[in-house]
């Protein structure tokens, strides 16, 4: 794909303006004109709200990202913006540019963890997530046709060294540790060597390091167990203390313990809470509805104040500012540190904090995780449904089970807690999928919860069977 000679403003396909970002299939409902239009409308928004217009941009390692990014920058320039292009790298490096370069806003071109044919755009304005109605407002700007063609500029700036130095600031490992890293051929590969070469007391095994938008080894989504098999093998074969994996744009973290077991985000978050609880008095820790009840119960025991939130890294980041939370996250691996950091989701920074905690412990990661109550659970299970029906299905189910026994939590989909444990059913805001999860203290209890989920799905015309 080469840059078109005459980029133009076009209306957005209604499906690409998502809740947390703009995302779609390249050359289906996203193209260079889409990117150019985002540049024009977002640039207009920034200058209209702030009366200045300095915007940093970056892009991930997908094959379509460079050309979409170039079209985006042209659109921003034509909105009158001073565009600072930081080049290819992980999404958190673009967020870092917002603070380090003191820009008014940032845009990242990334398809995140979606299949390779997808791509999209994540935006931040004045240190706040640009999402929900703000994203929808970009179409309204086109409809109003009130923005003019202005003259801006594009400059290139390499901040990789500044970014990696900031990540390693205050990170000192107190004992030797052997780490397996699975970069997933994602954008974190552009900076990983600079980090591992300067991480003290560490022996590092790197797999899938090369940035490759074809993702030849596995899909870059660490929440899917199948995608973690290579890392598990690397940990076991090399007798590592921990395995760390990243999604395609480096803002979500997957973890494997020293025995090769998956450690989910609501589990390793408890280890992060052990450190935070010593630094703050009863700190508020936000976690989403997909997280284990064990997390909420055990966080309270650590003198933390856990708060259940709807899923989504954007609303969680905004809630953190409102509640002055030093640490928050969600089950998908988006974890945000405001303690000694900026309050956004940077999987590498989270990994480094976790390593620092682990190096201050005598016990192995497996022993630390096994300290907490054992439960039986499904993984975060996602399956495709019609995009136009996903929210209607959840509303149907909610209406059918509103009088069921137990506690019904409906801040995001349906979470029911009863004597057997809990289950969740919700519609994804980023994909044409439903997400389900169940957890119990017994195998029998888990089967009972799964039967409820499968029955409710069947009543809504969906035939899905869990494998546990």
Key traits:
TATA-Binding Protein; globular; Alpha-D-Glucose-1,6-Bisphosphate, Chain A, domain 3; single chain; 34% helix; alpha/beta; 7-stranded mixed sheet
Structure description:
By secondary structure, this protein is of the alpha/beta class. The chain has three domains: 137 residues, Alpha-D-Glucose-1,6-Bisphosphate, subunit A, domain 3 (Alpha-D-Glucose-1,6-Bisphosphate, Chain A, domain 3); 208 residues, Alpha-D-Glucose-1,6-Bisphosphate, subunit A, domain 3 (Alpha-D-Glucose-1,6-Bisphosphate, Chain A, domain 3), CATH 3.40.120.10; 84 residues, 2-Layer Sandwich (TATA-Binding Protein), CATH 3.30.310. Helix content is 34%, strand content 22%. The protein contains 14 helices and 22 strands. The strands form four sheets. Strands 1, 2, 3, 4, 5, 6 and 7 form a seven-stranded mixed beta sheet that branches. Strands 17, 18, 19, 20, 21 and 22 form a six-stranded antiparallel beta sheet that branches. α1 packs across α2. The longest helix is centred in the first third of the chain and has 19 residues. The chain is globular and about 65 Å long. The mean pLDDT is 95.
